Predict the 3D structure of the following.
Amino acid sequence: MQILDGQAASQAIKESLKIQVAQLVAEGRKVPHLAAVLVGNNGASETYVGAKVKACAEIGFKSSLVRLDEGISENKLLGIIDELNNNMDVDGILVQLPLPKHISDEKVINAIDIAKDVDGFHPVSIGRMVQGQPSFVPATPHGIMLLLQHYKIDTKGMHAVVVGRSNIVGRPISILLSSNASPGNCTVTICHSHTKNLNEMCLQGDIIVAALGKPGFVTANMVKEGAIIIDVGITRVPDASKKSGYVIKGDVKFDEVAPKCSYITPVPKGVGPMTIAALMKNTFKACAENN
């Protein structure tokens, strides 16, 4: 069993980007600029945005953090996004989800300029990805593919079982794994809350991508010997013994599943850092294409 160390893989990507940014600076060219929009005071969102801003600083990107009150109106938020769209210095726009209930995620995502859609959630970006055209790929699925690539895992001909069908992870990763690329060329099964015989489905998986947000859902009896496990789950579970008051749990029962695997991602330090690395790559791409 080998740990797929997302922290080490993401560091390698960031170091590569850092070299490329230094080259841009030496040539007097524009460096990438990521604008992050944070609405409200959600603790997890604060952590995620903070990590993204920190990654920008490490690499040498410019970053702007736009903090907004939870009570901001939808129209005012859309106006701020429009301003960022028209700001020629901003290359990538990230609106941290989830948003307050009175604001439509769909409207906000659709309002972002496609050329600055570094999160890859815009319907046009998704459509291009589905058709195999150049596009911004959603950061978490992109990060998973970069992780497989980093560890030189040949997925050709494998059966991948994706548990979860969200637009953020489940659906896009199923498309990427089935695409004619490397990694890719898998036969893919998508499972969800209405899937019958879920255990039996998972047992067929050479690769299992667990992306449903239920701590410890995937257990040893659902995994065949030698499977590759990608745990996308990241849930804060209350724990009074911890200083923070919580522990981070993945969707996989790591201790019992790991001994059966050929490869497995830990939680934390697995898919999470790769999501940020993929976002950084998308931001660099946006800058290169827009300038």
